[in-house]
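Before the break, one more example. Copy the sequence into your notebook; we will annotate it together after we see the structure.
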Amino acid sequence: MRVVLARHGGERLDDPPGRDLLVRSSHSFAQLARVIDTAFARWDLGHLHEFSLSDGTRIGMADADEFGAEGELNETTETLGAARLKVGDIFEYVFDLGDRWEHDCTVLRVNVDPHEELGAAPRDIVPVFGWGALPDQYGRIGPDSDEGDE
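Here is what the structure looks like once it is written out:
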């Protein structure tokens, strides 16, 4: 799966960073969210997030019932396989529903042999390739910067 941080607050990013992930159909959307957040250097994870599939299905956080939309599926129980994703399918992952860090997730291949890719069959989702500079989730430019420095 390819995950590209395409937009922030609805604005397209110049030179968007991305990560390729090795996933299984048995992984949950909650597991995918955790790995995406880690791969994109998120450290303040106290924000709501959700997935939106191309058919309009929304998959969100289990512990955010008061914020969840009616009909939204639970990310801890919904698996990638249950979503019946095919090669070329694109869906969106949004981290922080206020600031809206919007990621395009594309299914690149199916039936991948993890032994050929990694020499092992990991149980967790594994980032296998990445590119681009990762923006700080609060816009800081250095360790002594305040939130939103330009």
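The beta strands are 2-8, 11-12, 18-22, 49-52, 58-60, 73-74, 90-95, 101-106, 126-131. The two ends are 32 Å apart (CA to CA). Try to locate both features in your own notes.
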